[in-house]
Protein backbone atom coordinates (compact mmCIF):
# COMPACT_ATOMS: atom_id res chain seq x y z
CA UNK A 1 0.00 0.00 0.00
CA UNK A 2 2.77 2.41 0.97
CA UNK A 3 4.72 1.59 -2.21
CA UNK A 4 1.62 2.24 -4.33
CA UNK A 5 1.04 5.67 -2.69
CA UNK A 6 4.69 6.66 -3.21
CA UNK A 7 4.48 5.75 -6.92
CA UNK A 8 1.23 7.68 -7.40
CA UNK A 9 2.62 10.72 -5.55
CA UNK A 10 5.81 10.60 -7.61
CA UNK A 11 3.87 10.45 -10.90
CA UNK A 12 1.60 13.32 -9.87
CA UNK A 13 4.58 15.47 -8.88
CA UNK A 14 6.40 14.63 -12.11
CA UNK A 15 3.41 15.66 -14.23
CA UNK A 16 2.86 18.78 -12.14
CA UNK A 17 6.51 19.83 -12.35
CA UNK A 18 6.57 19.24 -16.10
CA UNK A 19 3.38 21.29 -16.62
CA UNK A 20 4.69 24.17 -14.51
CA UNK A 21 8.30 24.02 -15.70
CA UNK A 22 8.09 26.89 -18.22
CA UNK A 23 6.11 29.08 -15.83
CA UNK A 24 8.48 28.47 -12.93
CA UNK A 25 11.55 29.16 -15.06
CA UNK A 26 10.41 32.48 -16.55
CA UNK A 27 12.37 35.34 -15.02
CA UNK A 28 9.78 37.98 -14.03
CA UNK A 29 12.42 40.69 -14.37
CA UNK A 30 12.96 39.87 -18.06
CA UNK A 31 9.54 39.30 -19.66
CA UNK A 32 9.34 37.64 -23.07
CA UNK A 33 7.32 40.55 -24.41
CA UNK A 34 6.27 44.03 -23.34
CA UNK A 35 3.53 46.39 -24.37
CA UNK A 36 4.66 48.59 -27.29
CA UNK A 37 3.55 51.75 -25.49
CA UNK A 38 6.04 50.90 -22.75
CA UNK A 39 8.93 50.10 -25.10
CA UNK A 40 8.50 52.96 -27.58
CA UNK A 41 9.34 55.98 -25.36
CA UNK A 42 12.47 54.30 -24.03
CA UNK A 43 13.71 53.61 -27.56
CA UNK A 44 12.98 57.16 -28.65
CA UNK A 45 14.59 58.78 -25.64
CA UNK A 46 17.75 56.67 -25.69
CA UNK A 47 18.35 57.08 -29.41
CA UNK A 48 17.54 60.79 -29.44
CA UNK A 49 19.91 61.32 -26.52
CA UNK A 50 22.62 59.37 -28.34
CA UNK A 51 21.97 61.29 -31.57
CA UNK A 52 22.28 64.57 -29.66
CA UNK A 53 25.44 63.44 -27.90
CA UNK A 54 26.98 62.46 -31.24
CA UNK A 55 26.00 65.87 -32.56
CA UNK A 56 27.94 67.46 -29.72
CA UNK A 57 31.08 65.47 -30.50
CA UNK A 58 31.91 64.53 -34.11
CA UNK A 59 28.76 66.22 -35.36
CA UNK A 60 30.06 69.62 -34.29
CA UNK A 61 33.74 69.28 -35.06
CA UNK A 62 34.16 67.22 -38.25
CA UNK A 63 32.35 69.73 -40.46
CA UNK A 64 33.36 72.63 -38.24
CA UNK A 65 30.36 74.11 -36.52
CA UNK A 66 32.42 73.94 -33.32
CA UNK A 67 36.07 73.50 -32.44
CA UNK A 68 37.65 71.80 -29.45
CA UNK A 69 39.27 73.95 -26.80
CA UNK A 70 40.32 70.93 -24.71
CA UNK A 71 40.70 67.20 -25.33
CA UNK A 72 41.20 67.89 -28.99
CA UNK A 73 41.90 64.38 -30.30
CA UNK A 74 38.50 64.20 -32.02
CA UNK A 75 39.11 67.54 -33.73
CA UNK A 76 42.57 66.49 -34.93
CA UNK A 77 41.21 63.17 -36.31
CA UNK A 78 43.06 61.02 -33.80
CA UNK A 79 40.06 58.68 -33.65
CA UNK A 80 39.85 55.32 -31.88
CA UNK A 81 37.43 52.43 -32.48
CA UNK A 82 34.00 53.58 -31.36
CA UNK A 83 31.27 51.69 -29.55
CA UNK A 84 29.02 54.70 -29.96
CA UNK A 85 26.49 54.66 -31.67
CA UNK A 86 26.91 50.91 -32.33
CA UNK A 87 26.05 49.64 -28.83
CA UNK A 88 23.14 51.98 -28.21
CA UNK A 89 21.71 51.33 -31.65
CA UNK A 90 21.59 47.56 -31.28
CA UNK A 91 20.31 47.71 -27.71
CA UNK A 92 17.40 49.83 -28.98
CA UNK A 93 16.90 47.70 -32.08
CA UNK A 94 16.21 44.67 -29.89
CA UNK A 95 13.28 46.52 -28.38
CA UNK A 96 12.17 47.70 -31.82
CA UNK A 97 12.16 44.07 -32.94
CA UNK A 98 10.03 43.13 -29.94
CA UNK A 99 7.43 45.71 -31.00
CA UNK A 100 7.49 44.45 -34.59
CA UNK A 101 7.18 40.81 -33.50
CA UNK A 102 4.21 41.54 -31.22
CA UNK A 103 2.31 43.84 -33.61
CA UNK A 104 2.99 42.56 -37.12
CA UNK A 105 0.01 40.18 -37.16
CA UNK A 106 -2.23 42.22 -34.85
CA UNK A 107 -4.80 44.12 -36.91
CA UNK A 108 -5.47 46.48 -33.99
CA UNK A 109 -1.79 47.39 -33.63
CA UNK A 110 -0.76 48.21 -37.18
CA UNK A 111 0.10 51.79 -36.27
CA UNK A 112 2.60 50.52 -33.71
CA UNK A 113 3.99 48.22 -36.39
CA UNK A 114 4.34 51.14 -38.81
CA UNK A 115 5.96 53.38 -36.20
CA UNK A 116 8.38 50.59 -35.29
CA UNK A 117 9.40 50.25 -38.95
CA UNK A 118 10.13 53.99 -39.11
CA UNK A 119 12.18 53.83 -35.92
CA UNK A 120 14.01 50.77 -37.22
CA UNK A 121 14.79 52.59 -40.48
CA UNK A 122 16.09 55.72 -38.77
CA UNK A 123 18.29 53.77 -36.34
CA UNK A 124 19.75 51.55 -39.06
CA UNK A 125 20.46 54.56 -41.25
CA UNK A 126 22.26 56.14 -38.30
CA UNK A 127 24.45 53.13 -37.55
CA UNK A 128 25.24 52.16 -41.15
CA UNK A 129 26.15 55.76 -42.01
CA UNK A 130 28.60 55.66 -39.11
CA UNK A 131 30.32 52.35 -39.92
CA UNK A 132 29.23 51.07 -43.34
CA UNK A 133 28.48 47.34 -43.44
CA UNK A 134 26.83 46.29 -40.17
CA UNK A 135 24.60 43.44 -38.94
CA UNK A 136 21.11 43.81 -40.41
CA UNK A 137 19.36 40.65 -41.65
CA UNK A 138 20.49 38.64 -38.62
CA UNK A 139 21.08 41.52 -36.22
CA UNK A 140 18.28 40.79 -33.76
CA UNK A 141 17.87 37.09 -34.46
CA UNK A 142 19.33 36.32 -31.05
CA UNK A 143 15.90 37.12 -29.63
CA UNK A 144 14.40 34.15 -31.45
CA UNK A 145 17.19 31.64 -32.05
CA UNK A 146 20.15 32.70 -29.95
CA UNK A 147 22.34 33.82 -32.87
CA UNK A 148 24.83 36.16 -31.20
CA UNK A 149 27.27 36.33 -34.13
CA UNK A 150 25.22 37.92 -36.92
CA UNK A 151 26.58 38.48 -40.41
CA UNK A 152 27.43 41.99 -41.55
CA UNK A 153 25.24 42.99 -44.51
CA UNK A 154 26.49 45.18 -47.30
CA UNK A 155 25.37 48.79 -46.94
CA UNK A 156 23.57 48.58 -50.28
CA UNK A 157 21.47 45.71 -48.88
CA UNK A 158 20.74 47.63 -45.70
CA UNK A 159 19.60 50.69 -47.64
CA UNK A 160 17.32 48.57 -49.80
CA UNK A 161 15.73 47.15 -46.66
CA UNK A 162 15.37 50.56 -45.02
CA UNK A 163 13.75 52.13 -48.07
CA UNK A 164 11.36 49.19 -48.41
CA UNK A 165 10.37 49.41 -44.74
CA UNK A 166 9.69 53.13 -45.00
CA UNK A 167 7.46 52.61 -48.01
CA UNK A 168 5.62 49.87 -46.14
CA UNK A 169 5.26 52.07 -43.06
CA UNK A 170 3.54 54.75 -45.13
CA UNK A 171 0.96 52.13 -46.17
CA UNK A 172 0.51 50.66 -42.69
CA UNK A 173 0.02 53.91 -40.82
CA UNK A 174 -3.69 54.75 -40.72
CA UNK A 175 -5.60 57.87 -39.79
CA UNK A 176 -6.50 56.50 -36.36
CA UNK A 177 -4.41 58.10 -33.59
CA UNK A 178 -4.42 54.98 -31.44
CA UNK A 179 -0.88 54.76 -30.05
CA UNK A 180 0.50 56.07 -26.77
CA UNK A 181 3.92 56.50 -25.21
CA UNK A 182 5.15 58.43 -28.26
CA UNK A 183 7.50 61.28 -27.32
CA UNK A 184 8.18 62.31 -30.92
CA UNK A 185 4.64 63.09 -32.09
CA UNK A 186 2.36 62.34 -29.13
CA UNK A 187 0.58 59.68 -31.16
CA UNK A 188 -0.13 61.85 -34.23
CA UNK A 189 -0.12 59.21 -36.99
CA UNK A 190 -0.40 61.74 -39.82
CA UNK A 191 2.93 63.22 -38.72
CA UNK A 192 4.51 59.76 -38.54
CA UNK A 193 3.58 59.22 -42.19
CA UNK A 194 5.19 62.55 -43.06
CA UNK A 195 8.34 61.56 -41.19
CA UNK A 196 8.45 58.17 -42.96
CA UNK A 197 8.34 59.80 -46.40
CA UNK A 198 10.61 62.72 -45.52
CA UNK A 199 13.22 60.35 -44.08
CA UNK A 200 12.92 58.25 -47.21
CA UNK A 201 13.72 61.35 -49.28
CA UNK A 202 16.80 62.02 -47.14
CA UNK A 203 18.07 58.51 -47.75
CA UNK A 204 17.18 58.48 -51.43
CA UNK A 205 19.23 61.63 -51.86
CA UNK A 206 22.05 59.93 -49.97
CA UNK A 207 22.29 57.17 -52.59
CA UNK A 208 21.60 59.38 -55.60
CA UNK A 209 25.19 59.28 -56.85
CA UNK A 210 25.60 55.52 -56.52
CA UNK A 211 22.11 54.28 -57.44
CA UNK A 212 20.53 57.14 -59.28
CA UNK A 213 17.73 55.10 -60.84
CA UNK A 214 16.39 54.02 -57.45
CA UNK A 215 16.79 57.52 -56.05
CA UNK A 216 14.96 59.24 -58.90
CA UNK A 217 12.15 56.69 -59.00
CA UNK A 218 11.58 56.96 -55.25
CA UNK A 219 11.71 60.75 -55.19
CA UNK A 220 9.33 60.99 -58.13
CA UNK A 221 6.92 58.55 -56.50
CA UNK A 222 6.76 60.64 -53.32
CA UNK A 223 6.70 64.15 -54.75
CA UNK A 224 4.22 63.42 -57.53
CA UNK A 225 1.54 62.10 -55.17
CA UNK A 226 1.50 64.14 -51.93
CA UNK A 227 -1.87 62.80 -50.82
CA UNK A 228 -0.57 59.22 -50.88
CA UNK A 229 2.95 60.13 -49.74
CA UNK A 230 2.64 63.13 -47.41
CA UNK A 231 5.83 64.91 -46.34
CA UNK A 232 6.70 67.69 -43.89
CA UNK A 233 4.71 70.82 -44.71
CA UNK A 234 6.06 73.19 -42.04
CA UNK A 235 8.21 73.36 -38.93
CA UNK A 236 5.26 71.88 -37.04
CA UNK A 237 5.88 68.53 -38.74
CA UNK A 238 9.61 68.17 -38.07
CA UNK A 239 10.87 65.29 -35.95
CA UNK A 240 12.46 66.17 -32.62
CA UNK A 241 12.42 65.48 -28.90
CA UNK A 242 11.16 68.29 -26.70
CA UNK A 243 12.75 67.77 -23.32
CA UNK A 244 11.18 68.62 -19.96
CA UNK A 245 12.52 69.68 -16.59
CA UNK A 246 12.72 66.06 -15.40
CA UNK A 247 14.56 65.08 -18.60
CA UNK A 248 16.34 68.27 -19.67
CA UNK A 249 18.19 68.94 -22.91
CA UNK A 250 21.35 66.80 -23.00
CA UNK A 251 23.90 69.47 -22.07
CA UNK A 252 21.84 71.19 -19.35
CA UNK A 253 23.09 69.05 -16.46
CA UNK A 254 26.68 68.67 -17.62
CA UNK A 255 29.50 70.29 -15.73
CA UNK A 256 30.69 73.67 -16.96
CA UNK A 257 34.00 72.28 -18.23
CA UNK A 258 32.31 69.69 -20.44
CA UNK A 259 30.17 72.37 -22.04
CA UNK A 260 33.12 74.72 -22.50
CA UNK A 261 35.29 72.14 -24.27
CA UNK A 262 33.46 72.89 -27.54
CA UNK A 263 33.62 76.49 -28.79
CA UNK A 264 32.46 78.35 -31.87
CA UNK A 265 34.44 77.28 -34.93
CA UNK A 266 36.16 79.96 -36.93
CA UNK A 267 34.63 78.31 -40.01
CA UNK A 268 31.04 78.86 -38.87
CA UNK A 269 31.91 82.32 -37.54
CA UNK A 270 33.33 83.52 -40.86
CA UNK A 271 30.58 82.06 -43.00
CA UNK A 272 27.79 83.59 -40.92
CA UNK A 273 29.50 86.99 -40.70
CA UNK A 274 30.10 87.07 -44.46
CA UNK A 275 26.35 86.57 -44.95
CA UNK A 276 25.29 88.98 -42.20
CA UNK A 277 23.47 85.97 -40.77
CA UNK A 278 21.74 86.62 -37.44
CA UNK A 279 21.72 82.92 -36.60
CA UNK A 280 25.17 83.72 -35.20
CA UNK A 281 23.32 85.13 -32.17
CA UNK A 282 21.70 81.72 -31.63
CA UNK A 283 24.67 79.47 -32.37
CA UNK A 284 27.20 81.37 -30.22
CA UNK A 285 27.62 83.73 -27.28
CA UNK A 286 29.77 86.87 -27.13
CA UNK A 287 33.23 86.31 -25.68
CA UNK A 288 33.53 86.62 -21.91
CA UNK A 289 36.07 89.37 -22.50
CA UNK A 290 33.39 91.47 -24.21
CA UNK A 291 31.36 91.47 -20.97
CA UNK A 292 28.16 91.40 -23.03
CA UNK A 293 26.63 88.31 -21.41
CA UNK A 294 24.69 86.02 -23.73
CA UNK A 295 23.95 88.57 -26.49
CA UNK A 296 25.57 91.45 -28.31
CA UNK A 297 24.27 93.11 -31.43
CA UNK A 298 27.90 93.65 -32.50
CA UNK A 299 29.15 90.71 -34.58
CA UNK A 300 32.72 91.59 -33.56
CA UNK A 301 31.96 90.31 -30.07
CA UNK A 302 31.53 86.78 -31.46
CA UNK A 303 34.88 85.09 -32.07
CA UNK A 304 35.62 81.55 -33.19
CA UNK A 305 38.74 79.42 -33.08
CA UNK A 306 40.39 77.21 -35.70
CA UNK A 307 39.62 73.52 -35.84
CA UNK A 308 42.32 70.91 -35.54
CA UNK A 309 44.62 72.45 -32.94
CA UNK A 310 46.42 70.15 -30.53
CA UNK A 311 45.73 70.54 -26.78
CA UNK A 312 48.53 72.99 -26.11
CA UNK A 313 47.81 75.16 -29.14
CA UNK A 314 44.07 75.16 -28.45
CA UNK A 315 44.41 76.28 -24.84
CA UNK A 316 46.86 79.00 -25.84
CA UNK A 317 45.06 80.19 -28.97
CA UNK A 318 44.73 83.96 -29.31
CA UNK A 319 42.36 85.36 -31.98
CA UNK A 320 44.40 88.57 -32.14
CA UNK A 321 47.82 86.94 -31.97
CA UNK A 322 48.51 88.71 -28.68
CA UNK A 323 49.52 86.09 -26.07
CA UNK A 324 47.93 88.26 -23.37
CA UNK A 325 44.59 87.78 -25.15
CA UNK A 326 44.59 84.00 -25.34
CA UNK A 327 42.39 81.33 -23.84
CA UNK A 328 38.72 80.76 -23.23
CA UNK A 329 37.81 84.36 -22.33
CA UNK A 330 38.53 85.44 -25.88
CA UNK A 331 36.65 82.67 -27.73
CA UNK A 332 32.88 82.35 -27.95
CA UNK A 333 30.98 79.60 -26.22
CA UNK A 334 28.24 77.88 -28.16
CA UNK A 335 24.84 79.54 -27.91
CA UNK A 336 22.74 79.84 -24.77
CA UNK A 337 20.13 77.64 -26.47
CA UNK A 338 22.44 74.71 -25.64
CA UNK A 339 23.83 76.24 -22.45
CA UNK A 340 24.46 74.26 -19.28
CA UNK A 341 23.06 75.20 -15.88
CA UNK A 342 26.51 75.25 -14.28
CA UNK A 343 27.95 77.76 -16.74
CA UNK A 344 24.84 79.94 -17.17
CA UNK A 345 22.83 79.48 -13.95
CA UNK A 346 20.51 82.43 -14.60
CA UNK A 347 19.92 82.05 -18.34
CA UNK A 348 20.24 78.35 -19.28
CA UNK A 349 17.03 76.54 -20.21
CA UNK A 350 16.25 72.87 -19.63
CA UNK A 351 13.65 72.79 -22.36
CA UNK A 352 14.23 75.40 -25.09
CA UNK A 353 16.66 73.27 -27.09
CA UNK A 354 15.23 70.40 -29.10
CA UNK A 355 17.13 67.34 -30.22
CA UNK A 356 16.35 67.50 -33.93
CA UNK A 357 16.09 64.21 -35.80
CA UNK A 358 14.96 65.75 -39.08
CA UNK A 359 13.76 69.27 -39.82
CA UNK A 360 11.40 70.79 -42.34
CA UNK A 361 14.27 73.04 -43.41
CA UNK A 362 16.44 70.03 -44.26
CA UNK A 363 13.64 68.52 -46.32
CA UNK A 364 13.26 71.72 -48.33
CA UNK A 365 16.96 71.72 -49.19
CA UNK A 366 16.71 68.07 -50.26
CA UNK A 367 13.86 69.00 -52.59
CA UNK A 368 15.77 72.04 -53.85
CA UNK A 369 18.73 69.87 -54.79
CA UNK A 370 16.48 67.22 -56.34
CA UNK A 371 14.74 69.85 -58.47
CA UNK A 372 17.99 71.58 -59.46
CA UNK A 373 19.54 68.27 -60.55
CA UNK A 374 16.42 67.23 -62.47
CA UNK A 375 15.54 64.30 -60.20
CA UNK A 376 11.99 65.61 -59.69
CA UNK A 377 9.67 67.80 -61.72
CA UNK A 378 7.32 68.79 -58.90
CA UNK A 379 7.97 72.27 -57.55
CA UNK A 380 10.67 74.83 -58.17
CA UNK A 381 14.25 74.60 -56.88
CA UNK A 382 14.42 78.31 -55.94
CA UNK A 383 11.14 78.05 -54.04
CA UNK A 384 12.32 75.04 -52.05
CA UNK A 385 15.66 76.73 -51.37
CA UNK A 386 14.10 79.92 -50.04
CA UNK A 387 11.59 77.90 -47.99
CA UNK A 388 14.50 76.06 -46.36
CA UNK A 389 16.29 79.28 -45.42
CA UNK A 390 13.18 80.95 -44.01
CA UNK A 391 12.13 77.83 -42.11
CA UNK A 392 15.50 77.69 -40.37
CA UNK A 393 15.32 81.33 -39.29
CA UNK A 394 11.72 80.91 -38.13
CA UNK A 395 12.54 77.79 -36.16
CA UNK A 396 15.41 79.36 -34.25
CA UNK A 397 13.44 82.54 -33.62
CA UNK A 398 10.71 80.44 -32.03
CA UNK A 399 13.18 78.47 -29.90
CA UNK A 400 14.99 81.48 -28.43
CA UNK A 401 11.59 83.00 -27.71
CA UNK A 402 10.66 79.80 -25.87
CA UNK A 403 13.83 80.19 -23.79
CA UNK A 404 12.85 83.71 -22.79
CA UNK A 405 15.94 85.37 -24.30
CA UNK A 406 14.23 88.53 -25.49
CA UNK A 407 17.28 90.32 -26.90
CA UNK A 408 18.18 87.38 -29.13
CA UNK A 409 14.51 86.96 -30.09
CA UNK A 410 14.21 90.61 -31.07
CA UNK A 411 17.37 90.43 -33.18
CA UNK A 412 16.09 87.34 -34.97
CA UNK A 413 12.67 88.89 -35.54
CA UNK A 414 14.32 91.99 -36.98
CA UNK A 415 16.04 89.96 -39.70
CA UNK A 416 14.96 91.10 -43.16
CA UNK A 417 14.71 87.67 -44.77
CA UNK A 418 13.88 89.05 -48.20
CA UNK A 419 17.07 91.12 -48.15
CA UNK A 420 19.05 88.19 -46.80
CA UNK A 421 17.89 85.93 -49.63
CA UNK A 422 18.45 88.64 -52.25
CA UNK A 423 22.14 89.23 -51.50
CA UNK A 424 24.57 87.93 -54.11
CA UNK A 425 26.08 85.28 -51.83
CA UNK A 426 22.63 83.77 -51.20
CA UNK A 427 20.46 84.58 -54.23
CA UNK A 428 19.53 81.55 -56.33
CA UNK A 429 20.53 83.19 -59.59
CA UNK A 430 23.72 81.46 -60.66
CA UNK A 431 24.42 78.50 -62.89
CA UNK A 432 23.61 75.02 -61.67
CA UNK A 433 26.97 74.45 -59.95
CA UNK A 434 26.70 77.78 -58.15
CA UNK A 435 23.12 77.05 -57.08
CA UNK A 436 24.05 73.61 -55.77
CA UNK A 437 26.91 75.13 -53.76
CA UNK A 438 24.49 77.64 -52.24
CA UNK A 439 22.04 74.86 -51.37
CA UNK A 440 24.86 72.92 -49.72
CA UNK A 441 25.99 75.93 -47.66
CA UNK A 442 22.51 76.85 -46.44
CA UNK A 443 21.70 73.22 -45.73
CA UNK A 444 24.93 72.93 -43.72
CA UNK A 445 23.96 75.94 -41.62
CA UNK A 446 20.47 74.55 -41.02
CA UNK A 447 21.86 71.17 -39.92
CA UNK A 448 23.61 72.71 -36.90
CA UNK A 449 23.29 70.19 -34.04
CA UNK A 450 21.34 67.59 -36.04
CA UNK A 451 23.30 64.49 -35.07
CA UNK A 452 26.11 64.10 -37.58
CA UNK A 453 23.82 64.72 -40.54
CA UNK A 454 26.01 67.64 -41.65
CA UNK A 455 28.97 65.24 -41.84
CA UNK A 456 26.93 62.70 -43.83
CA UNK A 457 25.90 65.35 -46.33
CA UNK A 458 29.47 66.62 -46.65
CA UNK A 459 30.71 63.08 -47.32
CA UNK A 460 28.19 62.81 -50.15
CA UNK A 461 28.82 66.20 -51.76
CA UNK A 462 32.15 67.55 -50.54
CA UNK A 463 30.33 70.85 -49.85
CA UNK A 464 30.83 73.20 -48.18
CA UNK A 465 34.59 72.84 -47.97
CA UNK A 466 36.22 71.37 -44.85
CA UNK A 467 39.87 72.33 -44.35
CA UNK A 468 41.72 70.19 -41.78
CA UNK A 469 43.38 72.11 -38.97
CA UNK A 470 47.12 72.74 -38.61
CA UNK A 471 47.67 69.90 -36.11
CA UNK A 472 45.44 67.35 -37.83
CA UNK A 473 46.78 63.83 -38.05
CA UNK A 474 45.55 61.14 -40.47
CA UNK A 475 47.73 62.72 -43.17
CA UNK A 476 45.44 65.73 -43.10
CA UNK A 477 42.46 63.75 -44.42
CA UNK A 478 38.97 64.31 -43.04
CA UNK A 479 37.54 61.03 -41.63
CA UNK A 480 34.72 59.42 -43.59
CA UNK A 481 33.60 56.67 -41.20
CA UNK A 482 33.93 55.27 -37.68
CA UNK A 483 36.01 52.22 -36.87
CA UNK A 484 34.13 49.17 -35.58
CA UNK A 485 34.08 48.71 -31.79
CA UNK A 486 36.80 46.51 -30.34
CA UNK A 487 34.14 44.32 -28.73
CA UNK A 488 32.80 43.38 -32.18
CA UNK A 489 36.25 42.35 -33.36
CA UNK A 490 36.65 39.97 -30.41
CA UNK A 491 33.15 38.52 -30.14
CA UNK A 492 32.19 38.27 -33.83
CA UNK A 493 35.59 38.08 -35.49
CA UNK A 494 34.67 35.85 -38.44
CA UNK A 495 31.87 38.10 -39.63
CA UNK A 496 33.87 41.22 -38.79
CA UNK A 497 36.72 40.01 -40.99
CA UNK A 498 34.29 39.27 -43.82
CA UNK A 499 32.92 42.81 -43.57
CA UNK A 500 36.40 44.30 -43.69
CA UNK A 501 37.22 42.21 -46.74
CA UNK A 502 34.06 43.46 -48.42
CA UNK A 503 34.41 47.14 -47.49
CA UNK A 504 38.13 47.71 -47.24
CA UNK A 505 40.37 48.41 -44.29
CA UNK A 506 38.71 49.11 -40.94
CA UNK A 507 40.01 52.65 -40.70
CA UNK A 508 38.55 56.14 -40.81
CA UNK A 509 39.46 56.65 -44.48
CA UNK A 510 37.49 53.77 -46.03
CA UNK A 511 34.59 55.28 -47.90
CA UNK A 512 31.05 54.01 -47.48
CA UNK A 513 29.10 52.52 -50.39
CA UNK A 514 27.22 55.73 -51.16
CA UNK A 515 30.25 58.00 -50.69
CA UNK A 516 31.55 58.34 -54.23
CA UNK A 517 32.43 62.04 -54.18
From TrEMBL:
InterPro entries: SusD-like_2, TPR-like_helical_dom_sf. It holds the Pfam family SusD-like_2. It comes from the Bacteria. This is Starch-binding associating with outer membrane. It comes from Maribacter stanieri. The lineage of its organism: Bacteria, Pseudomonadati, Bacteroidota, Flavobacteriia, Flavobacteriales.
Amino acid sequence: MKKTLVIIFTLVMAVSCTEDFETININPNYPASAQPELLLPGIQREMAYNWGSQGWEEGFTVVQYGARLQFTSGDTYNWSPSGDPYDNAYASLRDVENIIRDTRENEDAQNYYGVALVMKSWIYSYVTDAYGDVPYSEATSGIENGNVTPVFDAQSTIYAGILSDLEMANTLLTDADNISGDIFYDGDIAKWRKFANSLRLRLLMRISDVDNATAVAGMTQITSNPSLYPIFESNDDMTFVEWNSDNPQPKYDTRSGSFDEVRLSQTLEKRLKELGDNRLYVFAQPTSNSEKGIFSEDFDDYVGMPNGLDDEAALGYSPTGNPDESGSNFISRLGILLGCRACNPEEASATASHTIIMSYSELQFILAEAAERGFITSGDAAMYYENGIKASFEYYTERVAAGGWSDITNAMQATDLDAYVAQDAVAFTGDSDDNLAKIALQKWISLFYTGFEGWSDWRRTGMPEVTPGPDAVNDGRVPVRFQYPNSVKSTNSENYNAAVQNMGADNINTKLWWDVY
